[in-house]
């Protein structure tokens, strides 16, 4: 088991290079967007457009990227693997192109319906959709590179298209004062350019032969996940139009700023998520796989939640740096919401671990049902709570909905692929964590002097609960330390 633990950590560390580079650039450029999108609602409209392109990506790819994670290892030979890959790329790109043509034909009336703004957004959706066409191709090709463990290929081009697109967007926003439209013009040029380069580099991997069987395999595996993805879209995106249209443009701007900053937790979760799927599928036949899955799930939960807590301690100065370019203080209160949004991102990653047996046994519909129920809970909760509690209604439902998903997939997973996650200990630990974080929020909201005393107490109690609840023991931590790759070692 030792070599597999080391491989997971090594792959996560390798994939972290691109993620960290992209997030560092986003952290540096984000304040520029915040400073120049000064019209009320503009930050929210930037986020609202991204929510639309996200659902476009889901509808175009139709889960075939996730199916490739399975069929990459299940294919009989290299030729069949390439057939799966080609059919996945062509299908997804073709579907996205159809949506893009639709946007060019009906972009103007759609924009009037979506945006409550005096600004001219007639060409915004067509430009954003065409940029997404490039992103869909990039996502498939880089996924294929990741499964091949072409780490540097993945890292270089992940950074190239994210950083390149952002730099172009900044140019259009700052130099040409194109505001929200400028952001998506930058994405359009950057993503189409990188997509073309990747197609050229991976041209030998394409087998230009349509195969109904292979495409059917991909869709039959991936399509049942579409309701999950749509439900995930509801849980990550529907709060934006609710705040934008029901609460206020200012609340929508604050929330969008918080979401951008909360994504810093992706520095921890994204490398793991990229490495986890191919790793878990590659060891699924091992006898000790359930033991390994249980260990990873508990470790990720503890490490992730403690990082969320530490970030919350320092979030106010970090947040103030993020909005430093604003001449007004309209966004200043947003820092208190960031930890809950970060926790939602962590919980979303954890469901992949607690439900790993469902993926191995091809019970993906069960995951879909859980996300659909959670999405209904989230939507209903937002509609009820946002008019009363504003942003607090949204962040509360974010935590509750994702926690429901974790419990759901765990219960269903145990029926088909039992794993000892010590779930009772997990729930007790989370109860302590939530109580501590509610206290942190109260201290920050009331700007209590000497807040650091409470911070130390909260961190100490939460850390102690890891051992008090039986989630981990000191001896188990020693065993884990021996499994981790040593600096300069071969692991």
From TrEMBL:
This is Polysaccharide biosynthesis C-terminal domain-containing protein. Keywords: Cell membrane, Membrane, Transmembrane, Transmembrane helix. It is found in: Cell membrane. The chain crosses the membrane at residues 12-36, 48-72, 84-107, 127-145, 152-176, 182-202, 214-234, 254-274, 295-315, 335-359, 366-385, 391-411, 423-445, 451-474. The keyword Transmembrane applies. GO terms for cellular component: plasma membrane. InterPro entries: Poly_Biosynth_Transport (IPR050833). It is a multi-pass membrane protein. The lineage of its organism: Bacteria, Bacillati, Bacillota, Bacilli, Bacillales.
